Each structure stands twice: as C-alpha cells, then as structure tokens.
Amino acid sequence: MIEIAKEAAKAAGKIILKHFNKNLEFTQKSDGTFVSIADKEAEREIKRIILNEYPEHSISGEETGKTGKGNTIWHVDPLDGTTNFKNRIPSCCVSIGIEKDGKFVAGVIYNPFSDELFHAETGKGAYLNGKRIRVNSLPLNEGIIEIDSYFRSDKAKIKLQTIERLIKTVPNLRMKGSTALEMTEVARGFCVSSISDAIHAYDFAAGVVIVREAGGIVTDQYGHEPLNDSTVIIASNNKENHNKIIEITKESYSGFKMWT
Question: Model pTM?
C-alpha cells in the first residue's frame, strides 16, 4: 500500500505544479477555506490510482468525502495548504494516510515544490526520499514550535491565548500554513513540536505515522490517542517536551470543537 500511496502522491504533485501560479478560480467552502480545480483534479487522480489497486478500500477525501465501506481507509488531502497555493506561496503538499482496523498504520507526504517525499509504516521507520529521518533532542527553550495558521471565526482567540502561553516558554514560533508539512518538520528534526487545530483526519493521518516512526510523540490536546474526529493534534520530539506542551495548551483547548 505504501508504494501505491507514493505513486498517488507524486501524480497529484504533478497536477499541483501544473496549476501553480496560474489564474485559477477559487471557491470558498462553508468552513472558510478555498478549493480550486487543482485540489479536485489531484484528489480525483489519487482516488483513481488507489481504487485501481484496492477497489474494496474506503477513501476519505477532503473534497469528495468518504466513499466505500472497507475497514482500510485512505485519508486524502490532495493539497494541504490551499491558501498558500492560492496566494502563490510554494508551501503546500499532498498528504495520504492509511488507517486499518481503526489505527493509522502508514503515511506519505509529498512536497512537489522541493520534490521531498516522506513515508512511514508502523514499525518500519520514517524516511525522506529513502533516507531514515529522526526527531531532534532539543529542549523546548532551544527549539522551534510550528503552530497552525488557521485564524478564522471568533474561536481564533483560543489560538491567541495559546500563543501567549507558549512564548513564555518557547521563544521561537513558526507558521507554515500546512499541518502535514509542519508535522514533517518535527519528524525530520527541524522543530521540537507542532500544534494544529480545526483539522480533520485527512490533515494529520499521514503525519501521525511519520512523526512516531521518526521517534516522536503525537496525541490530541488531552494526551490521548489521535482519532478520526480529533480536532487538535500535537506532535513533539520527546515525552518531556510533549508533556510540557500539553500543560500549556490543555487549558486553552479544553472542550475545543471543530469550528465551521
């Protein structure tokens, strides 16, 4: 399955590059995010490749929802970072995570602009373009935290409160505009942690496996196992730092639910 995921991600990446920096028409969805022909074409191609090999599997795609009834679910974000893409910022990617019997077991994240392909399977390690990657060992006060850049709706104040708490401990914050890419930054050792909210499983399913197989930790805001309906995902390089992040964020995100 991981090879099919790689093939699908690279095919979608070609579509993204084909449409990048063009005068595309973007439609705003009910959650305030945007979609274009690039997202739709990329997802259609990913689904074609997956279902050609695994017609009995289910697919949960950002643009087309869930199809199929199989116990193996492919969580597909054909273009994570659409707002960046819309504004001609080359910081977006394809994310494909595989869930089997209720557990995330494999993931592929592909950045077509840098031609960087991350992949991981449970128990087999995490890789970037075929080379093993590992999280770093920095403490929070020496590292960088990536935080999701979604600030729509009145609940944006939750994120601002979290940032205010974070900067008392961590002086360096970054916002990339792509949950999947932020998680790869933790996995490859660039950052000590990433915090994403207002998300769906197709945003984080691949990243969960990649970070864990790189030696990191991924939970929701309560320190629990990420689930399909989790709306806050925290990834960290080690347990000590992760527990500190949970302490900082749990008050802000207590009872947090996805906004629309």
Answer: 0.94
